[in-house]
Amino acid sequence: ANFCLRTGNTDKGVDALTELLTIHKGDREALLRLAEIDISRKNDARAEERIKGILAVNKNDAQAHFLQGTIHRRRQEYDKAMAEFESAIKLDGSLSRAYLEKANLLLMRGDLDASESALKEAMRRNSGFVPARGAYAKLLAMRNRPQEALKIAGEVLTVMPDNEDALGARAEALRASGK
């Protein structure tokens, strides 16, 4: 399943994971991967069924809470999404994606300080988590710190050339610098 998913053959990966579930009912890893795929395919109802199955076995599954938060965010249920991301962080402090999503929600609320704190915590816990660095560059550009934003955005774009936050940060920093 992992090989198929990594090589872009998602349908065969889904088939393999589904077959695994017929042999090992309730396999957490398979359910999580299938829920992620369902979310990427915008099939939130099926993803939620899988997530509920995981949480029925272990209500303290950080990944499941993170995925549930992702669904709430897409539905624009921001308070519920925040609660799920905070639960995920509380259960697993190394879950960098949860910090990033929390930071994005805080940014939407206009709480730049709290957003910056969440991003710094994500980067502190996982210095190689490039999406958090891109979001931080965006935040720096919003705070009218164009030189810092340009530097970090450039570093991010070297590794992840399509990072939207870093691209936006670079554009805003260049605009603010009159370039």
Write a structural description:
- The model has no long low-confidence stretch (mean pLDDT 93).
- It contains 11 helices and no strands.
- The radius of gyration is 18 Å and the shape is globular.
- It is 78% helix and 0% strand.
- By secondary structure, it is mainly α.
- Helix 2 (10-23) runs antiparallel to helix 3 (28-40) and helix 4 (44-57) runs antiparallel to helix 5 (62-74).
- The N and C termini lie far apart (48 Å).
Question: Topology of this structure?
Answer:
Blueprint: H1 2-6, H2 10-23, H3 28-40, H4 44-57, H5 62-74, H6 78-91, H7 96-108, H8 112-125, H9 130-142, H10 146-159, H11 164-176
Helix pairs in contact: 2-3, 3-4, 3-5, 4-5, 5-6, 6-7, 7-8, 7-9, 8-9, 9-10, 9-11, 10-11
Care to give the gist of this entry?
This protein is an all-alpha fold. The chain is built from eleven helices and no strands.
For the sheet with most strands, the description reads:
none
- Number of DSSP helices? 11
Shape: globular
SSE string, helices as H and strands as E = HHHHHHHHHHH
Average pLDDT number: 93
- Say how many strands there are: 0
Q: Determine the N-to-C terminus distance.
A: 48 Å
Question: Helix/strand-derived class?
Answer: mainly alpha
Low-confidence stretches: none
Give Rg in angstroms: 18 Å
Helix content: over 70%
Strand content: under 5%
